[in-house]
Amino acid sequence: MTAKEQQKIASCLSSFNALITAQAEKIAQLKMHKKGLMQGLFPKFVEIGHALSL
What we know:
Blueprint: H1 3-41, H2 45-52
């Protein structure tokens, strides 16, 4: 394998690594968004009790 071929392979793997990292960040952001939505749909019991006492 020539140095040029090795460089192309390394570049390709680096690009894949960047894509994987970007997708992992997107997943983390979507999980945080989902958590916020779920908390909005199902507020904690304490918050409901507090709201009812107002």
